[in-house]
Amino acid sequence: MTPERLGLLWGITVFAGAGARLLAALSNLPGVVLLLLSGLLIGRSGLGLVEPLDLGQGLQTIVGLLVSLVLFDGGLNLRLPGDTIKATVLRISVLRIFVSLGAGILAAHWLAGLGWSLAAVFSAIVLATGPTVVTPIVKQIRLAHPLGDVLEAEGLLLEPIGAVLALLLLELALGDLHGWRELVQGLLARLGGGVLIGVTVGWLLSEGLRRLTPSQAVGLRLQLTLGALFLMFGIAEWLLPESGLPASVAAGVVVGRRSTEEAGQLDELIRELASLAITMLFPLLAADVSWAELSPLGWGGVSCVLLLMFVVRPVAVGVATVGLPLVWRQKLFMAWLAPRGIVTAAVASLFAIRLEQAGILGAGRLQGLVFLTILMTVGIQGLTAQPLARILGLIAESPEEASDATTSAVSEATTQALPIVPESGQ
Predict the structure, then answer these.
(1) Based on the number of CB atoms within 10 Å of its own CB, is 198 exposed (0-12), middle (13-18) or buried (19 or more)?
(2) Which of 72, 186, 288, 377 is the most buried (most CB within 10 A)?
(3) Are 42 and 49 spatial neighbours (Cβ–Cβ below 8 Å)?
(4) Are 152 and 131 in contact (CB under 8 A)?
(5) What pLDDT, in 10s, does the model give residues 206-218?
């Protein structure tokens, strides 16, 4: 690929993403929906201006680094005050690993027509909700605390697990792993190794940030943070493939907890860079999807996604929240809002390339079903989240109420329970 063509590819991609952001700001439509549509417009499904595969091996590196930035930002801002909130996130995550994974395999095989091995890979890829999608929706609708924290934390916890599990299931399908024992060992090694690397780098980074004087520019802190993050991601991926994702989340959590002042100074810049990464990644990855991959799925593919949305997710949330101090309105909203995000799209695109290179039939169908899941969950749930939250009375009365983490944290630590929405309108 010529340098001129490469520059044009990135120029079109970033401009399309920025245009989608502008349209979202003007129309108040969910930005992630428009980002995906912009990718379909400029890619193989539309004008054919962008072909991600032209990036070759660099596509995986670029996507990995940008995704690590997004996950680091999520870990940096992760706040889970109160034992009840933590228990809610943990129980939902554990139940979804078993319920959603098993149901996803059956639905993808029987309804969408994927082979058992690819159905397992699909189910692992779409296991996690996307914090890159949930966070903008939560902020846009001003969801009352702490439901937004629970939904974001669920995605941050499950996204690395789903990605690592999907990779191991892919290797099992390709014959690189032999048996479920190696799969379980690989899962524990990658997740544990990634978290260990992330905690170590996060601690070293926070110590370095604390030793910088207040007079030194915040730009230096940002450069140090990005340098450490990208180096950590590269080392983790080199040692244990896909361990860079849990490492990024763990590093963000450690820096956010240990370096309150420094993390506060970095927060806005990291958030803007993560937003830019999403603006670049969504159109780039959506450009790789063609209608030729979506159309053969037919009603079977649509039924598969609808089953995950309207049956599997509500059942998992309903079982997980039994005995917790949540009213039915909160449970209903948590059961409804589960859009898939950028990591799901990235993993699907990279895995489809590996499957095609290995000559495995169904790679395009797998990628198409994943993007159909993203389009339907983001489109339907993104457009209906605000009206549903308003009907259920879950919208904060003011922006300050939705974003005042400090006051909410004190309240949570004291009550050790989720704020309960009144059953009546009083």
Answers:
(1) buried
(2) 72
(3) yes
(4) yes
(5) 888 887 766 566 7
Q: 3-415 architecture in CATH?
A: Up-down Bundle (1.20)
Phi-psi region of 179 (alpha: psi -120 to 50; beta: other; left: phi over 0): left
Instruction: Render pLDDT for 140-168 as a digit per residue (tens, 0 to 9).
Output: 787 877 787 888 888 888 888 888 888 88
Residue 232 near residue 251 (C-beta atoms within 8 A):
yes
pTM for this structure?
0.82
